[in-house]
Write a structure and sequence with these properties.
Length: 357
């Protein structure tokens, strides 16, 4: 197995501490299930160093449970979901072209798909005898700290009880890597990555969302006229479900190509809806052709891979992609249409300029 520093060397690193990195897009597009060492890493603090033997998960419901990794593996039926995880800041770099935004300048690689194995969060909550209710929230606390406080988020009770929501101890059939949440993380398919806490420590069920700053203050979507100075987190929209998005992975931006047939490949993702169509343009969106779609059966929360062939004459060309979802919705054309000062949910057409000789 590669060491952490060898894994870092394979990625585009935005920062070493906290560790944030994404794979080059060509490598991301190489396999439907992203190898763990190629999977983007988003962390807010230092990576905690946890030992299986001493690690325990505390669950506070009608009864309080304290469970070891062995308990979790043996007491609950094993469950698996192939799901895409995506950072709310994926593609933020495209928004910086409009006006400054806060946060790391992610290209389109803050996304990945894995087969996650663990057990259903709902099974655990039932064992802890939690009180159900529409206004309830399942809150998580992790072992890493952000500004002196443990990382903490929450999800609505109904999503926590959904059959797709897991606590996972394996990714693509192997134990989680330290940077992806070893020994146990949540996987909340269709939701922004921020709601899938890594390095779990404690779970509570409560009648209000987590008051942790990550939940209460961060990861909010604001209108374009709101600034860092005027933002009121109470009025911002909490980013849970992820919107429709698509990206061109090949060719790369700035590539120099030979005239003629040009194979364009990428991904599209529709949260908890499905991608029904992907349009690809070789002329900045004046004309479009249809891509061929490739989707794993029985993986409703996983991305769609797509391929299209454009015929490109010599010159500069703006390639563009836009997807359509099962509700017949598509993506806005311009980054200006979706700009917000935090740089979240960049869903405009992904454009790649190439030179053909
Ligand atoms: N404990 C903890 N969980 C976390 C985070 C974190 O910093 N600490 N980052 C979140 C964010 S914003 C994302 S996008 C995903 C990234 O998961 P990955 O690093 O395994 O790709 O983890 C989420 N879970
Ligand atoms: Mo994220």
């Amino acid at each position: 197995m590669l060491s952490l520093s060898e894994r870092m060397a394979r990625l585009i690193v935005h920062g070493a501490t906290p560790y944030n990195a994404e794979p080059p897009l060509g490598r991301l597009r190489a396999s439907y299930r992203t190898p763990a060492a190629d999977f983007y890493v988003r962390s807010h603090g230092e990576l905690p160093d946890l030992e299986t033997e001493t690690w325990r998960l505390t669950v506070e419901g009608g009864v309080t449970l304290e469970l070891s990794l062995d308990d979790l593996r043996t007491r609950f039926p094993r469950a698996t979901v192939t799901a895409t995880m995506q950072c709310a800041g994926n593609r933020r770099a495209d928004l910086r072209a409009v006006a400054p935004v806060s946060g790391d300048p992610w290209q389109a690689g803050a996304i990945g798909t894995a087969e996650w194995t663990g057990f259903r969060l709902g099974d655990l909550l039932r064992m802890a005898d939690v009180a159900e209710g529409v206004d309830r929230h399942v809150a998580f606390e992790s072992h890493d700290t952000v500004d002196g406080r443990p990382y903490g988020v929450s999800i609505p009770f109904a999503k926590a009880m959904s059959s797709e929501t897991l606590l996972a101890y394996a990714m693509n059939g192997e134990a989680l890597l330290p940077e992806h949440g070893f020994p146990v993380r949540a996987v909340v398919p269709g939701y922004a990555g921020v709601r899938s806490p890594k390095w779990l420590r404690r779970i509570t069920v409560q009648d209000h969302p987590s008051e942790n700053p990550i939940q209460a203050g961060d990861y909010k979507l604001y209108p374009p006229n709101v600034t860092a100075e005027t933002a009121d987190p109470v009025l911002g929209h909490t980013i849970d479900a992820m919107p429709l998005n698509a990206a061109i992975c090949e060719p790369a931006r700035g590539a120099v190509l030979r005239a003629g047939a040009c194979r364009v490949r990428g991904y599209a993702v529709a949260g908890d809806r499905s991608v029904i169509r992907v349009d690809v343009s070789g002329d900045g969106g004046r004309t479009w052709i249809q891509a061929t779609l490739e989707h794993e059966p029985d993986a409703p929360f996983a991305w769609t891979f797509w391929t299209a062939e454009l015929d490109l004459p010599p010159g500069e060309h703006d390639l563009a992609v836009r997807a359509w979802d099962s509700a017949g919705q598509t993506q806005p054309a311009l980054p200006d249409d979706v700009w917000n000062h935090k740089g979240y949910l960049c869903t405009c057409w992904h454009r790649v300029r190439v030179r053909v000789t």
